[in-house]
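User: Thanks for the earlier help. One more: Sensory transduction protein LytR. Can you show the sequence and predicted structure together?

Assistant: Of course, both are below.
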Amino acid sequence: MRIAVIDDERPSRSELKHLIAECLPGVPIDEADSAHGAIELAARNSYTAMFVDIHLGDMSGTDLCAVLKRMQPDVKVVFATAYDEYAIQAFEMDASDYIMKPFDPGRVRRAVDRVTLCAAAAAPEAPQPCARMNKLSILTDKRVVVLDISDIAYIETDSRCCIIHTPAGDYTSPQPLGYFEKKLADEGFFRVHKSFLVNLTYITELSPWFNGMYCAKLKGCDKVAIPVSRKQVKAVKDIFEI
């Protein structure tokens, strides 16, 4: 069993986590302060239930519910919010429960009991954390796109945004290149230049360019020349044992 609390307000997250922990001692309870963060959690772990606020900064809770249900059809979604006008919409989306702020401990306990009973009825064994799914969620405009990491050829930045290049198309995100560099640190990506993060498995050719720099050619990106800065040339050569 694993639970997640999604709310952009830290006090509400902390209070709800505490109340759930009192009902389910020892059960892992993760948290996120945005829809994007929730999707990243769902890409890494299997959840019994996710408690979701209706109003999140980057996506509505109801839209997030639809995304989570596509990612994990068996997850139980409980809306936890100060707004009661969304109750009908929540249940139309197959939400397991709907609890109001400020939280009443007894009401939270009933919601927890409901989702645990539903989960037990659906599967004899509680779900365990799933294997890493090798997915990356990208915030683009007001949508969150979930990509297979292996489909990302490279990511570039123009200081205002990042462009994620895949065989299926390009995606523009306001997230900085440093964010993607950290997320993909263990996935075979390398920052060959201050403006380029490259999937090393896509590199097919390295050749000298100018001013001590190198040029990298990538599989499926024949018209693109990726600069390798002088600072990173040695590291790239070492990676490919050149």
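User: Great, one quick takeaway?

Assistant: The longest strand covers residues 221-228.
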